[in-house]
């Protein structure tokens, strides 16, 4: 992680993943999908960040090379990004009861069991579980209370994230800004200065 901190490393990984095709990545965790199951492989026009990971020179390359408009959320205002914050809890709820080692609310209470000692999933298995939850949410979850506009209703668009995505990319601002995967990953590497000598770098 170095001096950048884990937050920026996580943001870099997420952006590289967003700009990459998903079938090959999912296959690496034993989950077979098609492009149609998870069609996003692009960078956004605007990026809303949570301050810490996107403040300072670390984000300059993204802005300059890919023309991103960077916006940072106000500090201490988790309520302004409630969809993301709530999704973390819902992901846990989706499989927590079925996975040994899930951290229960009494974890830090005196005398409570250390649930981490019961853990059975390795990192790849945990990632596969998260992938399957995301696939279910994107492809099957009905967004109750989603306000479809008249054109969506006329086109009989279901309030399912993937259906809304497909409809929006065809009829609204559907221009996906795709870049070569290696260029995105290279651009996300941390910049630094080095001296090359006969002994090495």
Number of strands: 2
State the end-to-end CA separation: 20 Å
Order of helices and strands: HHEHEHHHHH
Shape: globular
| Structural class based on helices, strands and sheet pairing | mainly alpha
Number of helices: 8
Strand proportion, as a percent range, falls in: under 5%
Overall helicity: 40-55%
Largest sheet: 2 strands, parallel
Give an account of the 3D structure.
The chain has 201 residues and is mostly helical. 40% of the residues lie in helices and 4% in strands. The chain has eight helices and two strands; from the N terminus they run H-H-E-H-E-H-H-H-H-H. A two-stranded parallel sheet has the order 1-2. Strand 1 (46-49), helix 3 and strand 2 (69-72) form a beta-alpha-beta unit. The longest helix is centred in the middle third of the chain and has 18 residues, at 123-140. The chain is globular and about 65 Å long. The mean pLDDT is 80.
Write the layout of secondary structure elements.
Elements: H1 6-18, H2 22-27, E1 46-49, H3 60-66, E2 69-72, H4 82-95, H5 123-140, H6 150-154, H7 161-171, H8 181-187
Parallel strand pairs: 1-2
Care to give the gist of this entry?
This protein is mostly helical and 201 residues long.
Which features would summarize this protein structure in a list?
single chain, 201 residues, mainly alpha, two-stranded parallel ribbon, 8 helices, 40% helix
């Amino acid at each position: 992680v170095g001096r950048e901190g884990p937050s920026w490393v996580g943001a870099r990984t997420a952006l590289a993943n967003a700009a990459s095709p998903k079938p090959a990545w999912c296959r690496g965790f034993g989950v077979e999908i098609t492009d149609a199951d998870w069609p996003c492989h692009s960078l956004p026009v605007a990026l809303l960040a949570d301050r810490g990971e996107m403040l300072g020179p670390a984000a300059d390359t993204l802005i300059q090379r890919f023309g991103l408009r960077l916006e940072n959320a106000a500090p201490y205002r988790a309520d302004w990004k409630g969809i993301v914050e709530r999704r973390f809890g819902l992901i846990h709820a989706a499989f927590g009861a079925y996975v040994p080692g899930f951290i229960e609310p009494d974890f830090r209470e005196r005398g409570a069991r250390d649930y981490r000692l019961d853990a059975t999933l390795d990192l790849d298995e945990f990632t596969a579980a998260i992938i399957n939850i995301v696939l279910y949410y994107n492809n099957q979850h009905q967004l109750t209370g989603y306000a479809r506009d008249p054109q969506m209703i006329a086109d009989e668009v279901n309030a399912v994230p993937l259906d809304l995505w497909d409809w929006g990319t065809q009829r609204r601002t559907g221009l996906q800004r795709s870049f070569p995967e290696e260029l995105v990953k290279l651009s996300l590497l941390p910049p630094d200065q080095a001296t090359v000598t006969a002994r090495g770098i």
